């Protein structure tokens, strides 16, 4: 499925585990069906929210293959294939391509903190090696490195298959720079649920979302209304879920979203170390908000 026209709510889906720590593929299948029924526009597998750093390479490949087969072309499937090694990123991306994904989400190389020159060569190397649409992923709070708006636009102009950016730096000024200078057809997705509505009203294309795991129908409607410029409906939905968005980052993602799904009866409240269950106070506050919204 082509992602040329992909806009709206793209869920960064969680990876459910059984109580013994194994991947719960049956529950995962149910989550996919729920998202498709609720109107989610696209799906990212093996992203940050999917606890990818705790998955083995084989598990990562299994998750991607399972997702493609289960979705079966109904919505676009995007695989997170980033690495701080260009060689490994190409390997993971090639595996994902063989599995049949529609696009790749490639995070900025983390920990080794490359210069802009090194960052450019990294993404160029991946783009040349793997003939699939690539979404750049800028999340400096996690990676310790930054894909500047200027660099993202340069990469988009130089490589036809670098088609979008997921911007999660927390700055509206970066969105404004991207939207003012992007080449034709280049998509800008928010990686921040809280800023997505405002970014869409400026001309962005939707959100690769955490909170969509919990409210797929309403978050889809929030994205559609803001993309359509319906300020009244956008404001109503945004303020309804504002507090829940804030709870999603009361502790490190994906702890709150996965805890919320467990409270909703969708998954087990199981993480892989070093991630663990939430602190009692933040968990209780999240539970209270879910009750207020009628989600539990």
From TrEMBL:
SMART domains: DHDPS (SM01130). Its main location: cytoplasm. Gene3D superfamilies: Aldolase class I (3.20.20.70). Its EC number is 4.3.3.7. The record marks 48, 111 as: Part of a proton relay during catalysis. InterPro entries: Aldolase_TIM, DapA, DapA-like, Schiff_base-form_aldolases_AS. It is found in: Cytoplasm. The active site is at residues 137, 166. Pyruvate binds at residues 49, 208. Pathway: Amino-acid biosynthesis; L-lysine biosynthesis via DAP pathway; (S)-tetrahydrodipicolinate from L-aspartate: step 3/4. SUPFAM superfamilies: Aldolase. Pfam families: DHDPS. GO terms for molecular function: 4-hydroxy-tetrahydrodipicolinate synthase activity. It catalyses: L-aspartate 4-semialdehyde + pyruvate = (2S,4S)-4-hydroxy-2,3,4,5-tetrahydrodipicolinate + H2O + H(+). HAMAP family: DapA (MF_00418). Catalyzes the condensation of (S)-aspartate-beta-semialdehyde [(S)-ASA] and pyruvate to 4-hydroxy-tetrahydrodipicolinate (HTPA). Homotetramer; dimer of dimers. This is 4-hydroxy-tetrahydrodipicolinate synthase. The gene is dapA.
């Amino acid at each position: 499925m082509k992602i040329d026209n992909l806009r709206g709510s793209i869920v960064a889906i969680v990876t459910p585990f059984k109580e013994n720590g194994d991947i719960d593929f049956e529950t995962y299948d149910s989550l996919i069906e729920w998202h498709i029924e609720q109107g989610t526009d696209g799906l990212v597998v093996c992203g940050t929210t999917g606890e990818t750093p705790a998955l083995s390479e084989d598990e990562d490949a299994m998750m991607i293959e399972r997702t493609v087969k289960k979705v079966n072309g109904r919505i676009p499937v995007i695989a997170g294939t980033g690495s701080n090694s260009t060689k490994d990123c190409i390997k993971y991306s090639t595996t994902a391509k063989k599995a049949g994904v529609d696009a790749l989400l490639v995070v900025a190389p983390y920990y080794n903190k490359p210069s802009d020159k090194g960052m450019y060569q990294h993404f160029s190397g991946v783009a040349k090696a793997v003939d699939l649409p690539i979404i750049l992923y800028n999340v400096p709070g996690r990676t310790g490195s930054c894909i500047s708006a200027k660099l993202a636009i340069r990469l988009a102009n130089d490589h036809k298959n670098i088609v979008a950016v997921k911007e999660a730096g927390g700055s509206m000024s970066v969105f404004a720079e991207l939207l003012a200078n992007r080449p034709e057809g280049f998509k800008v997705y928010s990686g921040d649920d809280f800023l997505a509505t405002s970014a869409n009203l400026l001309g962005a294309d939707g959100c690769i979302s955490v909170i969509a795991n919990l409210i797929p129908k309403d978050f889809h409607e929030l994205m559609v209304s803001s993309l359509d410029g319906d300020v009244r409906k956008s404001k109503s939905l945004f303020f309804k879920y504002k507090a829940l968005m804030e709870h999603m980052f009361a502790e490190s993602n994906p702890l709150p979203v996965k805890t919320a799904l467990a409270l909703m009866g969708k998954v087990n409240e199981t993480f892989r170390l070093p991630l663990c269950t939430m602190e009692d106070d933040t968990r209780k506050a999240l539970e209270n908000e879910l009750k207020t919204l009628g989600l539990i």
